[in-house]
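Proteins fold reproducibly. Take a sample protein:
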Amino acid sequence: MGDVGDVEKRGNDGGEGLVVSKDTAHKISQDPWYQAGFVLITGTNSAYVLGYSGSIMVPLGWAGGTVGLILTGAISLYANTLIARLHEVGGKRHIRYRDLAGHIYGKRMYFITWALQFLNLFMFNTGYLILAGQALKAVYVLYRDDGALKLPYCIAIAGVVSALFAFGIPHLSALRIWLGFSTFFTLIYVIAALVLSIKDGTNASARDYSIPGSKMNRIFGIIGSMGTLVSLGNTGILPEIQATLRPPAIRNMEKALRLQFTAGMLPLYAVAFTGYWAYGSSTTIYLLNSVNGPVWVLTLANIAAFLQTIVSLHIFASPMYEYIDTRYGMDKGNAFSFHSLLFRVGVRGGYLAINTLVAALLPFLGDFMSLIGAFCSFPVTFVLANHMYLTAKKSKISVPQRAWHWLNVVGFSCLAVASAVAALRFIVLHSKTYNVFADL
């Protein structure tokens, strides 16, 4: 099945005689569990958290938003744990999501899963580039509000910086020190958003917490927000992250997931609730555009959001990089040889150029957040996770357990379709309202 042909046996890799793929130009089986935990936390607390007050709480209100956020966290932990426990099914360590699907379902599903995952990751990265562009524009507006530096230009700058970062970081394991920087950047914009929101909320008069829009728009807004909800804490690339872990991979991944869905979720909840409390239904889709405070604090927070987004984008682009590097030419022996560097510049640069063009063409961040959830977290994390577990473990689970997994498969499939329709509807509506390459 394409790039899963070469394997080797390692008796100490989680079980006697466990088969581990060696057909990859990237590193596997070498990272501690807490490094994977910080990779997951980086994805969970990327600058996307600055949009959750506006994209989740505003269309759902206090009751729906609070229940939705807490319930989604619990369901996401459960679904990701299912995927983690399938990592060694059949006596193999499946280092890619498509490898796992191919082992369970066969060759056709291997290619379907890969196509679906590629689309999902492309949309994730499109959203990151829009977000990075918004952060840059927010900095510019603090000093000059003359409209000279437009959002598409900022997105283009973000694309160039992302490409430069991708040239120097050959694989996911090489992010080590950058995960520390990412955590530092996260603390800056989270603390700034919290402190300034609390100050504004304390000094503000009564806020309006009613759900805005016409009845039809409110209905589609609620449905679309479900897509955003399920993107919380879900990467869609869990097997690829788990592949970097030292054995025992399943136990270590479960530790990483517990870290992510406890300490890692607290900043997300804090920003989402505080932002909505402070500004009500007028909360913007990018929270730092709502807060008031010293210019230097807002500058620092937006620059931190921009830089953290560059690291997060690299995480979600890494499965595509791994595929291209393995199949088409990175030197496995030396990731920094002239050939390897030239290869990354050409191929990764081209990939990010296409991503940047799409982001600048349709810079509707809230809609992309909903679309990501519909196309990524629903099918990959929830639908496939439950069905793969059901298929792989069907002889070992009870009838009530099988019924439970089938209920998840059918229910999340329906929600995925509904959320995708709602997100696409809003993208179409906004495309009619704004020109392409809109300066939002």
User: Anything to note?
Assistant: The first helix runs from residue 33 to 44.
